[in-house]
């Protein structure tokens, strides 16, 4: 008789159409009930959804229950962790998913050992590199539901899943009918014959041997008298149902022969994955993407520099910012398929996390400047990467004149703002207070060409100058680089590259969105609208040429207006293109959203028909080709549209070249023929709708369940919000490889971190006037210093941060985002440091100097 492993759990959306505070109230009774049941029945066990944050929330209500929780964890009755929250795995960076595990496991230890299971039962599909991330987080397995296509990806729901380089793999346990398969567990003929046995019958089609059945569902309580109910069920059913745990079933699976799969899991066969969910609530998504970068590429390295120079800031302060981000990256929260009230909560958490980050940076830079005793005409510039830097950095300078000149380097002013003089301003002096006239000054943003040491800083001097050279107007409507010309012909933007020309190279496309907060869906009988440009201004200096285009059009305000061809609202938009001497195109699109229920996308035309698109994903690149959508209803739960995620870089390849794009303002693209589309926003009025063109049948979000209601989301319309989308483009006469794309990505991941110690405006940085240099912390510093400089050698650094478990060490993670193995000269790279190989949990691993394709290596460093 087939043995069926039943595991009792709850799936706990921390927020959804209800808020995190609503969930906390629910947990008060349900978690207390679970603890009491586990204490009463030693043979019972309960999985707390694989995320620690909900337990931490509960313990704020019942700190006295910590001893009981520790006992139940030690007894393998209550399973906690390993994640801090239930992360999204399609639009979240690899480093963020790692922090989710790092912080979840670190914080779990106050209760006991967390489960080492990659438990992600409701995530909307998975990137192909999740096995790499899980291995780095000390896990050799994943338990999941959505995205697997049985009989196409694999024949069985239990298999080995490998990352792109095939060196990292996990045991994959799929839940074909979801985490609610055995919910409620009622010992009755109706339940066994109507739900439980048929569920096993379905899974049995795909596998031989034991089967896993989770028993639980959203915000469901623990099952009481579990063993007694199973005894009765075994008298009624045709299978051998046993109390089990995920760990026991995993141990069983490890002893069986398993087929292998490598690739992503994003096919909506047995469950929806919401393939267009990357476009809703783009204001929140964009803020999340930018906060990820701020934490990884700015704040963590700055804290390493700070610590080395005697500036003491708690790692728990950094973790607090991460927690607020991780709460906002839970699968529903990052997706945006939440109520407006929850969206406002997310926005507030992101605000708080940004404030922590900005104030950490402000503190570090101010105190470093104090230690350096900087004058007003000096600027401290930091390189947060371990790669030696030569290139351009942006700095902000306050000066009395409209121009400044840096010594021994090229610089140019990007923007200038004059602040008027003020009368009767109070000045506090040692001899008393007095009132003065505060002079006017300029806030100047400049780009300087400089050289910086790795994970270090350098001080640069400037002098004020009255000379100022603005961009000059070009008489014709075109800009040129080395091999590229961009022309505006009165309506279209065309590009000439060598002897090839593409008309309508860049344009904006507007279309109605009949979808909801889960999915874009086109409006029937409605056509997309091309947004043409009406005016063009071209400017130039010795380093760059710029084209500024603007357009105005009357657009339908509502979906009904589109069907009735009614043009109801004026819509204005601007596109700024800057062409550098080396043919890189910098772009910025800006508009204020005035339209309801619509999608706006950037459309790029390639010089030939696209063969495939290479997209950046965590620690690598994946090549995708469009799939046929004919007769999709026979197989899929929703239309498997060819809308895909990417992590900052996509490259459309065609016969004689490629078009590559970098952006951190969107992570959703689509292509067709010779067109590449990137989503700027998709607005909607509802949490969930039934019977969409892309998603027929029931509404997602429970809004058409019995007793539920349709839920309006007016804030998801992003009405009157200023939308800014920045990007970079490269047009090549060859198909670019992973190595080229990854260095391009690294260059644009570089952060501009600079500070001027000045007394013209203490509120350029929010807490500048309150930061003190502690007398017992004074340190003699030179005007240039480094912590880790790889010199002329360049390596891909995924992150640098102070160790969580060792106060005297910092951690560096190196990645290989290419398809070729890389050997590292570690002694040379880490000269002056003791180093050892670890994983992200700072557990020691076997030493190696080789990074396999599409993989990572992590090291802990201590000064010798």
UniProtKB/TrEMBL annotation:
InterPro entries named among the record's database cross-references: Gal_mutarotase_sf_dom, Glyco_hydro/deAcase_b/a-brl, Glyco_hydro_38_cen, Glyco_hydro_38_cen_sf, Glyco_hydro_38_N, Glyco_hydro_38_N_sf, Glyco_hydro_57/38_cen_sf
Domain Glycoside hydrolase family 38 central: from-to ranges: 272-350
An annotated GO BP: oligosaccharide catabolic process
Organism superkingdom: Bacteria
Record-linked Pfam families: Alpha-mann_mid, Glyco_hydro_38N
Any GO MF annotation of the entry: metal ion binding
SUPFAM superfamilies per the UniProt record, alphabetical: Families 57/38 glycoside transferase middle domain (SSF88688), Galactose mutarotase-like (SSF74650), Glycoside hydrolase/deacetylase (SSF88713)
UniProt entry keywords in alphabetical sequence: Glycosidase, Hydrolase, Metal-binding
Family according to the record: Belongs to the glycosyl hydrolase 38 family.
PANTHER family tied to this protein: ALPHA-MANNOSIDASE 2C1 (PTHR46017), MANNOSYLGLYCERATE HYDROLASE (PTHR46017:SF2)
Listed name of the protein: Glycosyl hydrolase
Biological source species: Latilactobacillus curvatus
